[in-house]
């Protein structure tokens, strides 16, 4: 499934035709998180262009023009902070696009790295694309913290473990 991320310094936002797709994604999400974790709270790096692909684990909205997604790749989560003003879309186009995105979809996101004011590492997308829709809804999350301090999602972890076991088993 190739959940991953790439980054290249860029003086300006990428053109709309530079879609975040499977071919432009070459660095995994854990490496992305490791590279940008040192940003300060509220700091943004608009001079960088970052492409990330992963599965939508959670979706929530603050306003009609601001949506938050939890994007997971290789078991690591990063927040996507989709704002209508950065998208290059009109408000109705932005609303239509994000209304169609569901939990479990695999998406490609192209934008710039930063941290939210609350300190959560995020990607601020300038382009958002569904790469593969989820045809069977993921189980609901029942979150808790394990002794190592990471979030656990009982049914999701079970599903993800079975998925990894299946893909790693010898043919």
From TrEMBL:
It comes from the Eukaryota. Keywords: Aminoacyl-tRNA synthetase, ATP-binding, Ligase, Nucleotide-binding, Protein biosynthesis. One of its GO terms (cellular component) is cytosol. Residues 1-20 have a biased composition (Low complexity). Residues 1-24 are annotated as: Disordered. GO terms for molecular function: ATP binding; lysine-tRNA ligase activity; tRNA binding. It catalyses: tRNA(Lys) + L-lysine + ATP = L-lysyl-tRNA(Lys) + AMP + diphosphate. Belongs to the class-II aminoacyl-tRNA synthetase family. This is lysine--tRNA ligase.
